[in-house]
Amino acid sequence: MSAIRLLVLGAVRMHGRAHGYQVRNDLEYWGAHEWSNAKPGSIYHALKQMAKQGLLLAHETAPSTAGGPPRTEYEVTDEGLDEYRALLRDAIRSYDRNMDVLSAAVGFIVDLPREEAVALLKERIEGIREWREAVTEYYTPEEGPESLGHIGEIMNLWVHSADSGAEWTRGLVARIEGGAYTFAGEGDPFVGVLADDEVNPYATGVPDPGDDE
């Protein structure tokens, strides 16, 4: 799974309707350009591609609030909402997703009911446990990883990554079960997008041809 589809669908959904530059601005505000493939070209390409696939509805033109040329606005369709939720659930429950996919999912986890989020995270923990158990059945060098040469460090890295991933997930589960954050159906969610007139302190400021579309 690519993080860009989840990020773009989630960002458009948060606005209701949004043009490409708004989506880019939000993702840069979250730092997604640093920890994912959410670069301007990828964002604008994803918007157009998902509009062709019927996941987004492209409204012909909308006046730019900055006084520039009209821009296309996008809205998530029912099919797009189904895709968004499927991507989100899969990213949360799966233990073997890349860090950018998991990061994107954490950014939208409150779109799910609290109980479902916890259940999916527990699936992730169980997946990590099963993977680690299968690996350590044959990879447990008593003399340490160096007994297998430097190649032993590869599996050592993965085992330690699994342990830290499980620890982080258990901590998140505990915080959610303890009442942290506002989940779907519980009230007004945390506002994670910029207002139209709010300056983005984390914007890269690098122009892209798609900014004016």
Description:
- The chain is mainly alpha-helical and 213 residues long.
- Helices cover 54% and strands 7% of the residues.
- The chain is built from eight helices and three strands.
- The chain has a three-stranded antiparallel sheet.
- Strand 2 and strand 3 form a beta hairpin.
- Helix 5 packs across helix 7.
- The longest helix has 26 residues, at 152-177.
- The chain is globular.
- The model has no long low-confidence stretch (mean pLDDT 87).
Q: Determine the N-to-C terminus distance.
A: 27 Å
Q: What is the beta-strand fraction?
A: 5-15%
The amount of helix comes to 40-55%
Work out the number of β strands: 3
Strand order of the largest sheet: 1-3-2
Characterize the overall form: globular
Radius of gyration: 20 Å
Whole-number mean pLDDT? 87
Low-confidence stretches: none
Major sheet characteristics: 3 strands, antiparallel
Summary of the model, kept short:
The protein is mainly α. It contains eight helices and three strands.
Key terms for this structure?
3-stranded antiparallel beta sheet; mainly alpha; 3 strands; 213 residues
Topology:
Blueprint: H1 3-15, E1 18-19, H2 20-29, H3 32-35, H4 40-52, E2 56-62, E3 71-76, H5 78-93, H6 99-108, H7 114-136, H8 152-177
